[in-house]
Amino acid sequence: MTHPAAATVPLHTPALRAENIRKAFVSGQQHTQVLDGLTLDIDAGELTLISGPSGCGKSTLLAILSGLQKVDSGRVQALGSELGQLDLRALERFRLQHTGFVFQGFNLFPALSAFEQVELPLNHMGLSREEARRRAQQSLEEVGLAHRTRLRPSELSGGEKQRVAIARALAKEPELLFADEPTSALDAANGQMIIDILHRIAHTHGTTVLCVSHDPRLVVHADRVLAMEDGRILSDRRTRAPLVDNKETPS
Ligand SMILES: Nc1ncnc2c1ncn2[C@@H]1O[C@H](COP(=O)(O)OP(=O)(O)OP(=O)(O)O)[C@@H](O)[C@H]1O
């Protein structure tokens, strides 16, 4: 099934765009320039992986592109919206309606069943109870957890917990899905399953999936790999042809 909202952003338009962004952190006497004039486009409907050594700025870049953090200077566009122009409320609404997140530590509520974890944000989005239940069931089925919906996090394996977290993000039917080190707490087999699911989501739902990781196992599964070091993109490599040819037809 193709996500209907994916059609709102033409495929030749980057889903995410960073233009000359700068970001520094100051703590006490220490000034850390994390991103220093970084420019980047992320295409819709692909799994893009940002890899690089610890501390190079991957998570900061992800937080900025998803509207969780502000830049010091430069522009960030997501689905054509200029994130810097949105006030806090509009930004929250944008994130609720258009983005999903998957984190290294799963971020699940200990007291809720898998089904309730997925259903909860859908209620906040204002969906009817029936629609929320339908989406929750469908998303859990899609990540292979139809038989585990009643279990709480303490009763699930690490890989299953991460699949619940993915189902929770997926059920929102977001155009943008952000994953920060989604496999680093998992063994090889579970890590492989998670990246396969993320890849499938990008291709079957038209979702733009941006994943940061220093896990080298993920590289071969991404459509595009950006290698980052010291806050800069060192290389930009496609592992397969883009979904559409973005080049202008020569006249
Ligand atoms: N809130 C903050 N306050 C101060 N410094 C920060 C903050 N967030 C990040 N940094 C610093 O910015 C730099 C980049 O951090 P970031 O988390 O983006 O790197 P990363 O590539 O994702 O690393 P890792 O792979 O270890 O998660 C690091 O030096 C980090 O210490």
List keywords for this structure.
6 helices, six-stranded mixed sheet, four-stranded antiparallel sheet, alpha/beta, Rossmann fold, disordered N terminus, binds adenosine-5'-triphosphate, 251 residues
CATH class: Alpha Beta
- Would you tell me the structural class of the helices and strands? alpha/beta
What's the main sheet like? Answer: 6 strands, mixed
Main sheet strand line-up? 6-7-8-3-9-10
Q: Could you tell me the CATH topology label.
A: Rossmann fold
Helix fraction, binned, reads: 25-40%
CATH architecture classification name: 3-Layer(aba) Sandwich
What's the quaternary structure here? Answer: single chain
Helices, by number, come to: 6
- Return the domain count: 1
What are the secondary-structure elements, in order, as H or E? EEEHEEHEHHHEHEEE
Rounded to the nearest angstrom, the distance between the terminal CA atoms is 36 Å
Query: How many beta-strand runs?
Result: 10
CATH 4th-level superfamily:
P-loop containing nucleotide triphosphate hydrolases
Rg, Cα atoms, Å: 18 Å
Query: In what range is the share of β-strand residues?
Result: 25-35%
Keywords: ATP-binding, Nucleotide-binding, Transport
Domain ABC transporter: 16-251
Pfam families: ABC_tran
GO molecular function: ATP binding
Give the SSE layout.
Layout (H helix, E strand, L loop, with lengths): L15 E12 L2 E13 L4 E5 L6 H8 L7 E6 L2 E2 L5 H11 E5 L10 H11 L4 H14 L15 H14 L4 E5 L7 H18 L2 E5 L11 E6 L2 E7 L13
Parallel strand pairs: 3-8, 3-9, 6-7, 7-8
Antiparallel strand pairs: 1-2, 1-4, 4-5, 9-10
Helix pairs in contact: 3-4, 3-5, 4-5, 5-6
Bound molecules: adenosine-5'-triphosphate.
